[in-house]
Amino acid sequence: MTTLSKSELITAEIVRNYLETVCNEISKVVENTSISSIFSETHDYSVGIFAADARGVSLLARAQSVPVHIFAALTSVETVLKIYEGDIHEGDLFFASDPFYGGSHIPDWTVVNPVFIDGKPMFFTSVRGHVNDVGGCAPGGYNTIAREIWHEGFRVPPVKLRERGVPVADIWNLILSNTRTKDDISGDLSAMVGGCVVGERRLRALVEKYGSGTVARCVDYVLDYSETRLRAEISQWPDGVYRGRSVLDHDYAGGGEVPVEATVTVKGSDLTIDLTGSHPQVAGFVNSVATNTISNIYSSLVALAPDIPVNSGYFRPIKVVLPPHSVVNCDPPAPVGHSTVCIGSDIMEAVMKAFEGIAPDLVGSANIDLVNVRVYGTNSRTGRFFVASDITATAMSAGGAKGTDGWGGYAAPFCALRLPSLEMYERQYPYRYMTVEYAIDTAAPGKFRGAPALHYRRRMLDPVRAIVYNQGYTNPMQGYLGGKPGAGNYFVLNEGAPDEVKVTDACYDVAVGRDRVIFAQSGAGGGWGDPFERDPARVLADVEDDYVSIAAAARDYGVFIDPDTRKVDSAATAAARARAFEARRADTARAA
Amino acid sequence: MLKVGIDVGGTFTDIVVQDEAGGIEQGKVPSVPGNEQQAVIAALSLMAERAQRPLADFLGDVAVINFGTTVATNAMLQHRGVPTAMLTTKGFRDILELRRGYKEVLFDIRLQPPLPVVPRRWRLGAGERIGPDGEVIEPLNEGEVREAARKIRDGGIRAVAICFLNSYVNPAHERRAAEIVAAECPDVDVHLSSDVLPKVREFERFSTATVNAFLSPLLRHYLDRLVDELRRNGFRNQLLVMQSNGGTAAPEQAGRLGCAALLSGPAGGVAAAVRIGEVCGARNVIGVDMGGTSYDVSLVRDALPETRTESWFSRHFVGLPMLAIHTIGAGGGSIAWVDGGGALRVGPQSAGARPGPACYGTGGSEATVTDAFLYLGYLNPDFFLGGRMTIRPELSAEAIRSSVAAPFGMSLDEAAFSIFRIINNNLSNGIRYVSVAEGHDPRDFALMSFGGAGSVTVGIQARDLGIGRVLVPRTASVFCALGELLADLRVSQIHATPGRIDALDPAVLAASLDALAAGPRQELEAVNGVERIRLERHAEMRYAGQVHELPTPLAENADFRAAIAETVRAFHALHKQRYAFDMPQKPVEMLSVRQDVVGSRQWEVPKFDIVSDPDPSAAIKARRKVCFPDGQGFEWLDTPIYDGAKLQPGHRLVGPAIIEEVDTTIAIQPGDRVLLNEYQVYDIAIGDAP
What we know:
The complex is a heterodimer of chains A (592) and B (690).
Chain A: H1 6-33, H2 37-40, E1 45-53, E2 56-62, H3 69-83, E3 93-96, E4 108-117, E5 120-130, E6 159-163, E7 166-167, H4 169-177, H5 182-210, H6 212-235, E8 240-248, E9 258-267, E10 270-274, H7 290-304, E11 318-321, H8 344-355, E12 371-379, E13 384-389, H9 422-428, E14 431-438, E15 454-460, E16 464-470, E17 490-493, E18 501-503, E19 506-512, E20 517-522, H10 536-544, H11 550-557, H12 570-591
Chain B: E1 2-8, E2 12-18, E3 24-30, H1 36-50, H2 55-60, E4 62-68, H3 71-77, E5 84-89, H4 95-98, E6 123-126, E7 129-130, E8 136-138, H5 142-154, E9 159-163, H6 172-184, E10 189-192, H7 193-196, H8 202-232, E11 238-242, E12 248-249, H9 251-256, H10 264-279, E13 285-290, E14 295-301, E15 304-305, E16 307-308, E17 311-313, E18 316-318, E19 322-323, E20 326-328, E21 334-338, E22 344-350, H11 369-375, H12 393-408, H13 412-435, E23 446-449, H14 458-465, E24 469-473, H15 479-486, E25 489-500, H16 506-525, E26 530-543, E27 550-553, H17 560-579, E28 588-601, E29 620-630, E30 633-643, E31 652-654, E32 657-660, E33 665-668, E34 673-676, E35 681-685
Parallel strand pairs in B: 1-4, 4-11, 5-6, 5-9, 9-10, 13-23, 23-24, 30-32
Antiparallel strand pairs in B: 1-2, 2-3, 7-8, 11-12, 13-14, 14-15, 14-20, 16-19, 17-18, 21-22, 24-35, 25-28, 26-27, 26-28, 29-30, 31-34, 32-33, 34-35
Helix pairs in contact in B: 3-8, 5-6, 10-15, 11-12, 11-13, 12-13, 13-14
């Protein structure tokens, strides 16, 4: 532990708060100025401040963002520094996107800006964000038929975007020319750089005020602080070995189900998370590099202890074991494009399930389940090529948790993503929304139920091509402590037409004609606790609000509601619940 | 004739009366929760009494009463609007609940949902569809509207918001549905999303419209009763209501737009900051108002307060232009505590008024910011709230010892000063976030403190941010009421535009904006005291593909085509200033124009004679040890304590010093120079500032 004078201890706390404020400022700049909607509207980016000293690079502070960036941001900066060791100068600016150089998948671009103090790079400001297109076979970056990394886009290992203050024009051009929407992405890259510059100004002001020596000592404190708080949390959990499992429906390459196994060991204030037993590396694009796997493990932990600031100190009490050549720790040149969510979310869920036995009051769905479609083509109104990555289809993910039902769209930790405005998208893309609404009897039952599934229907106004990728049909998001699983996901292409087809896994580059309809169901997270323990008043309210039908209230919750008086029949409810309880006890006894 | 400003707050109702010569009389009476108009009459009676006139006679001489109210604010905070329904495009009734995926605390899977303004059972669908260019894709199903209206009529609903997709380009369906609903349920208030916020983005528009429906009937009913009460007591002239946009409005207008009154209270303070700043020659002002639990930061640039069009109020989105008041959880009652990582934190939990800071002796045992101020010598135990309240310093010391000094192994001095440092840092970060993060350089601003507690630390925030000038008005304790009296009338309007600048017909836009302004212009011209109407126009602009708009002042040029071109140039420059880059080669879009129709009226900040001798030493009432920052440490300085009541315009003094006013204490840091100017404002030059 760092030893600080008492006065410096207070200064350190001030510095810690200041760094978090700076991250929020950088984040605001990026949000307000980027072009691609996945960036600016859905917030699929992250912001970090890093420090470097003789011992290596540390993440000091980050802005709230989607989980996948948590750890990848650190490894990207580390890789840049390793490659350019001895060749980092004031005015340099770095870029990287290659998953096998500290990244996660190719569309996540990282910009790293060294902040020189007293002639040395003391800090780095960094913005990492998911851009809309990175070349490769599939517009939008998700190539469901990829079998190796080169099928997924243009890999950029660490390069310099600016050298000693002079932009390296040929590198900019090379990177941007390998995207389909160069103009927009050029704006995004400017926004990322703009954010880094704003952050640099603030860090210089900090050092000016306190002096670099004090600030350096405060940095140690900032890291120790998070470690101390996480250890305090872990110490409250019962020692032991706990297991969880989550299964991905398919690998997009005909390979069947892909399970992830998590073994969590709690010992004092140390935690070991071991994914041994997870499926070997697969042919399809759901393989995860170690960095991405670790990010998703941390996401579950952050959901379990949400108010501890995440930085490199946070990572210290945790040991992660990943089996080699596996779907959670793959070797090049495996395709990895989908791993940030598909296998990523299963990693989160497997870890969360293991915690069911450790911290039952804190668990619940923290992941999402992917159901997505990218449509692209030429918009006849503007004559321009477009790629619409409309995440409305993936809206639902919230499950029940102790004390609250699932609610909202994206209201799991992935909710840093914001749903697009339907009116704005109708202005930009040649399709029309017909339905975006919850469906009755689709919420996962539980003492606290999940959010309902969303039904989503669009009519195409121009002929388009579509890439559909779906998971969670056979293995929807799981329930906790006796809560039921979510409703699951699927697509219907050409709904209502003679060539209607239900898609439960994927289809690549299919034509969808003008006036044809694409339907999707996005199922939400699981319930928490036994549905037969749900307060009948809540069940009645759900019936009044059309979340639950009268029939489902009886079937799923054992709550009987008179269809005429709209009141709970307390006697029938008590009797049904007692019978169910009795039957379950008998089952348990038989099993024992 | 007299002008009156009244601000009904949670605890006190403040009143300011200005005579024709500009002279000001101010007063305070206790508020009556749940019965605001009673306190209003009490405040007016107090002023009549002081003028030694019967109330009817006094009110007969009042030309205008400007009024700030917390009716809408409290209804929202307590979730007590009227039972509200929503009629929306069939198939889209969950737009409100989806919230575009927004969740306040990202990783908290146990965060409760917000209480719904309209529960799902009252979100009713009707068949209809308008396309993005305003074309009718599916005609309005009037039978379904009628059916919904009957359900609403029979269900005890008092207000309905009609919210159809793309109604901002073509409101025909919303308007027709409103006719049907009005015919079926004449007693139900009907609000259209295309009236309340005619702007692209359905969630934002629908949420604003439903919040408006939820609040407006309450506010209108309340204003009706108030006007009746005032009339009965002899008032014959104009009542005006303070709006969240920083201007005032007639009760008829205000009652239609309940969600425009959410900041009716604090907006008065910002309006006053604008005017006081102007007379003091500071057109750029950062205003700070520290109360018991919160610290409100606002920003005035070139004598115009910053507004925003994206606000979350009580977890519900409201998209009307509102003053950008940024609130952080830091106040006199903020509690110092040690977190699980061993760090000293201050707030956001507050001891509030009950149990209050430890020194109140009313059961609070945790050290608060007020306790630290008291221990460090900033507050005078014998002159708290002007001597109206007894406080006990020994309880502060004990609380600081047990909650901070003991766990950290610090001395009491170190512990108290540590609380002081942390709270100062929180306050400075709050100011930094509203100024710097929006691309402003705080060094171009004066910092104005007008709350009860904020003037103890304001000199430190100025230093942290590089600000050279601090202003502390002596009217701080009735600042909101004063601002209501000094504000212009202001009606905010929104006009949607087609998007790409090159698709814009400047002549059509100019004509539309003028036509839009015609109604309010007429209404405002009819208001007694309005001298001139002016239009403030901001274009909501962005680079093609961006999703956030940057409001850019629409250039004033008789040639409207040239005005648009100038505005585009201004947009590039503003973008560069705020975000460190611009993209001049990229197409620019204008999504809407915000137009404020402003009715200027005469205003005057009273001016006083300057004393010939600047020496204030006669006002020194005592000396005591006060703990001031010294580098990263501190030092106790023997400090003169000035009786604010004895200081007069023209007096000058140099810190260290403490000035004790009845409702506030001002700490002057060593070396800072103070002039009490002719507007009764303490004008403080920080450090080396001129």
